[in-house]
Amino acid sequence: MLVRVVRAVIGTCLLLIGLPLLLAGGALWFAMQHQDPAGGYSARLTTISSDGYAVVASDVDALLRREAPFTRSGQTTLRLTARTATGPAFVGLAPPADVARYLASVPHTRVDQVRLARGPLPVVTTPVAGVAVPAAGPDAQPFWRTSSHTGALEWSPSELRGEQLALVVMDPHAAAPVRVDLAARVQPQWLGSTTLGLLVLGTVLLLVAVVALAWPTRPREIVYVVPPAQLPEIAAHLGVPVPRAAAGEPVDLAGSLAGPVPAGFSATGTAPACAPAAAGPPSVLPPPVESAEPPTSSPAESASLPGSIPDPAPPAPAAPEPRAPEAPHPPAPVAGKTFEWPPPHTAHPPTASPTPVPVPASAPGARPDA
Predict the structure, then answer these.
(1) What's the predicted TM-score (pTM) here?
(2) In the predicted structure, residue 300 carries a pLDDT above the cut 50
(3) Helix extents (H) in the chain
(4) In 3D, which of 189, 163, 170 has the Cα closest to residue 64?
């Protein structure tokens, strides 16, 4: 019972872990089917039109964390392409304080949100009023963390994670107004290995969970041991003839059943060591058959009869050997009487009828009749 409970708990836990992993791996595999030939994802942003001199995202890391957190994971590169009406735009990353001093009182447009959607990604912007003009072009400023005047800037968001940097897009000559066409490309290099790992791990955990939950339990068999005298009653209850087998051997009732053995019974018994005697009168043994040959006497009997010559005593054996018990000696002869030897109640009945032997009164050792 305890093993089954532990196996059920382990199987349930593995199922709760393996199924989400398998679903996540399946979702990532589905996303991989939409990659471009280089293994990345590209999207265009809606065109941003500004009456000012620049388009600014004050905290690009917070914007990515809020709208596209998967771009901030390890081994991911982000490439931003920007073009103006006159050609490639200037794109740079710099601390927000330096950017604020550079664009102080200069009209520009602030980017508040970029939403993920099908087609061009919607961009929510806020215009910032001003009357000043930039002191010089963006290329002449020394505070840029990284910049490009070719209209394409590529960086790893994971390397700048937690660092507050402002993204600035301007005309290379600091001209206004600005109309910017933006395109972003994300290349997650971790996607392939992560997808494979989730699919394999989720499948293994799910299979182990199914095996743990569906492991067959060993059937329990109840064996009833009954006395041999109750076998007829059990056979009658099951509707089978009484089986017969040698003493001490098992009796199989299944072979006599017309149908399956009822649940909870084992069709096995033991044959009795000896069958009980049938009721009836006691049996009478027939009398012994008389033989025509004269009875033979043993050497002990011959030695005890009067007038017989005893045989010489055999030599003493080297070592005592076990011998059969000797026959009882006959009674002393009585004058005028006859006796039967061996007696009728002896354990070994004679082969012929006993012969009376007369004993004369003058025989030695005879005693008078009482």
Answers:
(1) 0.53
(2) no
(3) 2-32, 60-67, 96-102, 191-214, 231-238, 299-304
(4) 163
